[in-house]
Design brief:
877 residues; alpha+beta; 5 domains; six-stranded mixed beta barrel
Length: 877
């Protein structure tokens, strides 16, 4: 330890007193030279000859200085500093080259830094739970019954918690309805019901107060934990909120705690209130009430795969009495939180790394061409005693200086890009703010160092490996052919391959986005505004029907409103609310394999949204509450059960399948409406009239309004119309249908834009690289080309020789890139949203674009070659 400290102290002293030491060394050497020269003059030498002999006897003044400096403590620091200063002078001497190099690196390092910040925040940074890597979600596999989701039921959760062997505990959560009234305007809240062990499973603590207990959960206590956002927004982050009573759904609830700012739980990005689940005995027997999201903590040493196998066996036993027993699925919580971002971000990050690699290869080619111009400099320094290691270090430090400047510019570029990437945060995760934290800065530094090594090492080794006598030649016969440029050409092929792969995969995403944008929604979305009005205050059927009808009449009377209707779920927003159904002659076993979306609507709803009827009719004024209600079905329902036949007049029983359940008469078929979202698969749907919906729990809380002009202009009047009927009625989620569609297309459009931008950048860089190499090759072969022209070579032959070589590299790279694109496309299939884009169109388009740009990059140097004056070329010989 003392030796190390002594060495460090010596290094510091050497750096601090370096100038004085250099002055002393100069004085000593000068004295030696003067004394040796004096001795020589005494032997009869002239002063000039005597001084020359003294220097030769010394072995060279500068050489001695170099040897002495290299023996000092910390000499490498001093040498590095001198190399860095030399590198800065080189940058100033070649401003055009330096600007291109720094800009290229800034683009590569900037996009990689920004992408890494997004990957770090969304996929790497720990979730806001204790030992989050041990948390998993447990789902029920109900795909055999046509259900595409994996949502559990209350009794299954209860059995999992009793009999599991792979978890420490299993908690349940489910969607909740909560409307806040009292102080201020009524407000619908984002609510979630959770079991009392939810908090211990996640390992979270409130920032204020406490969480509710299992006893309070099972006992039905009206206690609530607030989300941090609601606490700050509605209650001013008051610390005395604990113990206060608030009004939720017209009932008094006591606040017992507040969760931290960064706490969230999927599928919601932000939850306002956490309420006890308080499952009733009937709910704990409802094996077909799929609304439970189960979260579990894995036991130490148990993997997700082992847990999934164990839970599958357990659930097959638990559901063995059902017509179709079902398995269970266990997935890491991180996967559920990240969603499609788990696939999208690594792919986009890989594309960014490819751009950086292309930039580095481009610069490697430029530096190799530049190194050829510095052969004499390298040779002179080698002749003066500089070893190859010393020269390689000089080149690498120049590369590091360039990379450092590029990294600084890249960080400045990364900051605005981070703001854009923040929008890629999955909707199941709390919003993130991307910053240049320690890990991101470390990553940027790593990118810069890697770039310096990639684009600096090969040119350094190649430039310093030249024989001194070859490098000292002023000219030569300039026949730099393919063999002497094999490495540069190989780099061009790699660049081209990466560019084509990015172009092709970007084309696949573009096809997907175009398909989503052209998707027929089944409604007319222009000038259609939607909102949600929770109807918890109107639980009695007759009273609710009267209220909704009066509400819609008031809205229709607002100037600028063309039509209005209501539905239990706003179109394109909700994927749940499904139910089993039965057709005449079917058994109970048949019904357990049939699930349809269930929607309750009011009269005029289909006309308001602009839906089209295939056949039959809409709900009419004559359709009143009775034991023989009517229903409307969609195309998917008809395709499943009435292919080639009309369903009009047929019967269907659903929702309440007991002997007293209504049989509905189908009176109409509506063209498919994208109820579950733009990118979701179509499913059978059954629509009931609210006036006849006395055997359903669905309530038409979603209001849709067709306006004559700008929707935002009538929102205030619509709100007042609703409050004119009930001043305490909460109103939430006011948005146009265009906004709903736009939000759902945000992720695919941003993925496409990013990958497309990376592809264009890669194409430009690869084209510049191809142009640079061919231009350099023409410059090196000036003598050869001049001789060939003087000997009668035709213009066409020169063009083919120069341009054909470049196109051969481009074609080779394109072929490799197309293969890479196929593999990349297989890895990103989840980003296609069930669509099958055409690989042929994408790869052909990508190859055509690349080859067209490459042809232009090859034509310019080839055209310059055929214009070479043979006389001038031979004079250079």
């Amino acid at each position: 330890m003392s030796t190390l400290l002594h060495r460090i102290a010596a290094i510091i002293r050497g750096l601090v007193h370096r100038r004085r030491a250099d002055a002393d060394l100069d004085s000593e050497l000068r004295s030696f030279v003067e004394m040796a020269a004096a001795d020589a003059m005494e032997d009869g030498a002239t002063p000039a000859d005597a001084r020359r002999r003294a220097v030769l006897q010394l072995g060279g003044v500068e050489q001695v200085k170099e040897r002495v400096r290299s023996g000092r403590h910390g000499a490498w620091i001093d040498e590095t500093g001198r190399d860095a200063r030399y590198a800065l002078r080189q940058i100033r001497r070649a401003p055009a080259f330096s600007a291109i190099a720094i800009t290229t690196l800034a683009l590569g390092i900037g996009v990689n830094t920004a992408m890494f910040s997004a990957v770090d925040a969304i996929l790497i940074r720990p979730l806001p739970y204790a030992d989050a890597d041990r948390l998993a979600m447990v789902w029920v596999d109900t795909r055999q019954s046509g259900e595409s989701a994996f949502v559990g039921t209350p009794p299954e959760w209860l059995e999992w918690r009793r009999d599991h062997t792979v978890f420490t505990d299993v908690a349940a959560s489910q969607p909740g309805d909560a409307s806040l009234s009292g102080d201020g305007e009524p407000e619908e809240l984002r609510a979630r019901k959770v079991t009392g062990n939810f908090w211990s499973v996640l390992g979270v603590r409130p920032v204020v107060g406490r969480v509710f207990t299992e006893e309070e959960d099972t006992g039905g206590a009206r206690v609530v934990v607030l989300g941090h956002g609601l606490w700050a927004r509605r209650f001013g982050a008051s610390p005395d909120i604990v113990g206060r009573t608030i009004t939720l759904n017209d009932a008094a609830w006591q606040v017992v705690g507040v969760m931290p700012r960064d706490f969230y739980f999927p599928p919601e990005r932000q939850t306002d209130v956490w309420m006890p689940a308080s499952f009733s005995p009937n709910m704990l027997r409802a094996f077909f009430w799929h609304d439970v999201h189960a979260v579990a903590r894995l036991r130490p040493g148990v993997s997700v795969r082992e847990a999934s196998a164990a839970m599958t066996a357990l659930n097959l036993k638990v559901t063995g009495h059902l017509p179709i027993p079902r398995a269970a699925v266990v997935t890491p919580l991180r996967d559920e939180v990240a969603g499609k971002a788990y696939t999208a971000l690594p792919i986009l990050f890989g594309a960014a790394v490819s751009v950086l690699l292309i930039a580095c290869l481009n610069l490697a080619n430029l530096l190799m061409a530049r190194g050829a111009a510095r052969r004499r400099e390298v040779a002179v320094r080698a002749a003066l005693g500089a070893g190859r290691g010393r020269l390689v270090r000089q080149f690498l430090i120049e590369s590091l200086v360039l990379a450092g400047l590029g990294a600084a510019a890249g960080l400045a570029l990364a900051l605005p890009m981070m703001r854009f990437l923040e929008t890629l945060t999955p909707p199941t995760m709390a919003a993130v703010h991307l910053t240049l934290n320690a890990r991101v800065l470390a990553a940027a530094t790593g990118f810069a160092v890697a770039a310096a090594v990639i684009f600096g090492l090969v040119p350094a080794l190649r430039s310093t490996g030249l024989a001194i006598q070859d490098a000292m030649r002023d000219g030569g016969r300039g026949s730099a052919g393919v063999r002497s440029h094999r490495l540069q050409y190989a780099l061009i092929v790699v660049q081209t391959a990466l560019a084509v792969a990015l172009l092709a995969t970007g084309g696949l995403l573009l096809q997907t986005l175009e398909h989503l944008q052209r998707t027929d929604l089944g409604i007319r979305r222009e000038r259609l505004v939607t909102l949600v009005t929770p109807l918890f205050r109107y639980r009695e059927f007759e009273r609710r029907v009267a209220y909704v009808n009066e509400l819609l009449d008031r809205i229709r009377a607002v100037p600028g409103v063309g039509a209005a209707g209501a539905i239990s779920r706003v179109p394109l927003t909700v994927s749940d609310q499904s139910t089993f159904y039965r057709l005449p002659g079917q058994s109970d076993a048949d019904t357990r394999q049939q699930v349809a979306l269930s929607r309750v609507v009011t009269r005029g709803y289909f006309a308001t949204v602009g839906a089209t009827f295939r056949e039959g009719r809409d709900f009419a004024d004559t359709d009143r509450r009775s034991g023989a209600p009517v229903a409307i079905v969609n195309d998917s329902f008809v395709t499943r059960h009435f292919a080639g036949a009309s369903p009009i007049g047929s019967k269907v029983q659903f929702g309440y399948l007991a002997t007293k359940g209504y049989w509905y008469t189908i009176v109409g078929v509506v063209r498919e409406i994208r109820e579950r979202g733009v990118a979701e698969n179509l499913r059978p749907a059954i629509y009931r009239l609210h006036d006849q919906g006395d055997q359903t729990n669905d309530v038409p809380s979603g209001i849709v309004v067709r306006t004559a002009g700008e929707p935002s202009a009538i929102v205030g009047a619509v709100r007042q119309a609703i409050w004119s009927v009930d001043r305490n009625q909460p109103i939430a989620r006011i948005q146009t249908m265009d906004e709903i569609v736009g939000k759902q297309l945000t992720a695919p459009s941003q993925n496409t834009v990013l990958l497309g931008a990376f592809a264009v950048l890669a194409l430009v860089l690869a084209s510049i690289g191809l142009y640079g190499v061919l231009s350099y090759g023409v410059a090196q072969r000036t003598n050869e080309i001049g001789v060939r022209i003087a000997l009668g070579a035709q213009t066409r032959d020169i063009l083919l020789a120069i341009g054909g070589r470049g196109m051969a590299f481009a074609v080779s790279g394109a072929a490799i890139g197309l293969v890479l694109a196929v593999f990349a496309g297989r890895a990103m299939e989840t980003l296609f949203y069930g669509i099958s884009p055409s690989y042929f169109v994408s790869v052909v388009t990508a190859a055509s674009i690349l080859l067209a740009v490459a042809a232009l990059a090859c034509f310019i140097p080839a055209r310059r070659a055929v214009r070479i004056d043979p006389v001038v070329a031979l004079q250079q010989e």
